[in-house]
Amino acid sequence: MTRSAAFPTRRTSLDTAYSQQKWRWIVALGALFIVGGLVALFNVMAATVVATVYVAAAMMVAGAWQIVTALQIRPWSRAALWCVVGALTLLAGLAAARFPIPAAVSFTVLIGALLITGGAIKLALAYKLSDLGRWEYIAIAGGLGLVIGLLILAELPTSGLFVLGLLLGVNLLFEGIGWLAMGLAARGVVQRSSRPPM
Q1: Are 16 and 190 in contact (CB under 8 A)?
Q2: Which of 10, 12, 37, 156 gives the lowest tally of CB atoms within 10 Å of its CB?
Q3: pLDDT at 7
Q4: How much is the pLDDT for 5?
Q5: DSSP 196
Q6: Is 102 helix (H, G, I), strand (E, B) or coil?
Q7: pLDDT at 8
Q8: Do residues 168 and 51 make contact, with C-beta atoms less than 8 angstroms apart?
Q9: Between the CA of residue 105 and those of 23, 37, 129, what are the distances in Å?
Q10: pLDDT digits (tens, 9 = 90+) for 131-180
Q11: Rounded to whole angstroms, what are the CA distances from 98 to 56, 87, 101, 153, 197?
């Protein structure tokens, strides 16, 4: 007998009680993400600056953490190299925060290059897997990535003003939809469990 079969009532009651307490918060979180995504999509330039500053802050935290870690490494030859990498990451984050628009353009170049590279790899993979079923989906995904990457690079530097904001908005929107769906599903569990047995 499995553990889930041995304790069905206790597990179900705990899940239901938790969902009953939290589903409204999950729905509210999803709605908040959706609103944030829509705001970002309606003002992609401001969202691009926000996304750039967010990445810059992450770089500064990562660089500072590398420096702190380097001070605890022995021998000093390894610590020095680790510290240099951390300092460069920290300085790059500070520069990106100080000059968000040029940094956004640089990040956009990186995104475009990654999309082109990923698309080319997927197309090659689809060709290698052409003897298997449904390889067309890999080819379509690769082709779309390749085309989008080329379009992003072709529209530089203009694309640097909106690509990051667009990605941020789409990400927030889909994340919000996911949380909203999860909260509504939890609400359905609560409603079904609260009905009297037939």
Answers
A1: yes
A2: 10
A3: 44
A4: 46
A5: P
A6: helix
A7: 45
A8: yes
A9: 40, 21, 36
A10: 666 777 878 888 888 888 898 888 888 888 888 888 888 888 888 888 88
A11: 9, 16, 9, 24, 63
Q: What is the DSSP string of 118-172?
A: HHHHHHHHHHHTTTSTTHHHHHHHHHHHHHHHHHHHHTTTGGGGTHHHHHHHHHH
pLDDT surpassing 60 at residue 125: yes
Q: Which of 115, 116, 108, 123 is nearest to 156 (CA)?
A: 108
Provide the CA 159 distance to its chain's centre, in angstroms: 20
pLDDT tens digits, residue range 157-166?
Answer: 888 888 888 8
pLDDT tens for each residue of 8-38: 444 445 454 555 567 778 788 888 988 988 9
- On whether the CB atoms of residues 55 and 25 are closer than 8 A, the answer is no
pLDDT digit string, tens, across residues 74-90: 777 777 888 888 888 88
Count of all residues that appear for the chain in the document: 198
- Both structure tokens of 53: 């500053």
Question: 30: number of CA atoms within 13 Å, CB side?
Answer: 16
Q: Check if the beta carbon of residue 167 is closer than 8 Å to that of residue 51.
A: yes
Of 26, 25, 34, nearest in space to 176 by CA? 34
| Measured torsion, CA atoms of residues 38, 41, 44, 50, in degrees rounded to the nearest 10 | 40
